[in-house]
Amino acid sequence: MTPRDTTYPFLHKDATMDSTRKPTLAIIGYGSQGRAHALNLRDSGFDVTVGLRPGGPTEPKAKGDGFTVKSPAEAVRGADLVAVLTPDMVQPQLYGEVIEPNIAPGACLLFAHGFNVHYGQITPRDDLDVVLVAPKGPGALVRREYEIGRGVPSVYAVHQDRSGRAEERALAYCAGIGGARQNAIRTTFKEETETDLFGEQAVLCGGATRLVQAGWETLVDAGYQPEVAYYECLHELKLIVDLFYEGGITRMHEFISETAQYGALTRGDVVVDGETRARMRQVLAEIQDGTFARQWIAEYAAGNANYRALKQADLEHPIEAVGCRLRANMKWLSTAPAAPAQQTK
Ligand code: NAD
Ligand code: MG
Ligand code: MG
Ligand code: MG
Ligand code: MG
């Protein structure tokens, strides 16, 4: 059990709340972020209710973890703070139909990503505090780091401050999920939204995935064993990223051979060159001018056919089958899936 994090004052100090009782936090959604936030906040001493559609896919999990599960409307009604942790694309309708009609006057509305507020898909009611607490990592890590007494760094922002204590509320939540154990950085909804989208598109998810796939295909097409190519282009990436994480690119250079350093320094720019950087600026420009947001909203509204097809192609990429076979022998990987190539949501 992790000791309560007292870096920041708890929400009951908030002037708009009844100080004779613990504040109630409603976590709406129990997926990647929702589950991690709910568990961490409960362990930090908050009173947490989970709001989920009755019969929804994650209801048994929330109940299994010992939470009181209510319908989203009921959970919102009793809450001092409502954290909106459903997928981004369902939030506008959820806000309009369930949250706005039920949220208490003066309550705090919290997001983990600024997308809907920044792109004008949600205009929160005027009396609410509206804040953002965005952990810079997936939910499973937010939970695991908290449990071992560490935290995933988080950024926070205030969009609307009606109580005069919106920042304090955001920081209390941030502390409660373990995100204030290190550098909690104040940002804006605009900066968080644009940098988060850019990071996941150009570097972390889109960029890294395509770099790995392209490298693996290059080796396999040249006649090398797919398994050896898998180790070189995917498996070993973790070892390099762990060094980045601990000590930046400096640390990587401390640990790799001189031959690897000389090759990296002279060939990295061949792969990521000025044209790559120009395309990165194009990706960023489409985030900044709303092109990406409009395209994603339209895709979702049209039923996601294109999104599903693109994702299926990733799941069916031959590197997945190779990795699945190899990882089956890595018994220490408790999360190894039985088989790839099926979408679960
Ligand atoms: P998710 O897809 O993992 O989980 C969504 C949850 O919402 C599930 O419990 C689902 O059953 C529930 N849900 C779906 N529709 C609903 C509805 N209409 N009413 C009530 N509940 C509904 O979501 P996630 O990836 O945790 O994303 C949640 C938020 O966190 C998003 O704003 C996302 O941008 C942000 N975020 C995610 C990550 C991440 O690593 N996944 C990181 C930082 C921020
Ligand atoms: Mg992110
Ligand atoms: Mg994101
Ligand atoms: Mg190697
Ligand atoms: Mg090597």
TrEMBL record:
KARI C-terminal knotted domain mapped to chain residues: 188-333
Chain sites annotated for binding substrate: 257
Record field: catalytic activity: (2R)-2,3-dihydroxy-3-methylbutanoate + NADP(+) = (2S)-2-acetolactate + NADPH + H(+); (2R,3R)-2,3-dihydroxy-3-methylpentanoate + NADP(+) = (S)-2-ethyl-2-hydroxy-3-oxobutanoate + NADPH + H(+)
Superkingdom per UniProt: Bacteria
Catalytic site positions: 113
Cofactor, free-text remark: Binds 2 magnesium ions per subunit.
Alphabetized Gene3D superfamilies for the sequence: 6.10.240.10, NAD(P)-binding Rossmann-like Domain
Keyword match S-adenosyl-L-methionine: no
EC identifiers of the protein: 1.1.1.86
UniProt keyword terms in alphabetical order: Amino-acid biosynthesis, Branched-chain amino acid biosynthesis, Isomerase, Magnesium, Metal-binding, NADP, Oxidoreductase
GO molecular function terms attached to this record: isomerase activity; ketol-acid reductoisomerase activity; magnesium ion binding; NADP binding
A Pfam family recorded for this sequence: KARI_N
Binding site for NADP(+): 30-33, 53, 58, 139
Protein name: Ketol-acid reductoisomerase (NADP(+))
Species the sequence originates in: Dokdonella fugitiva
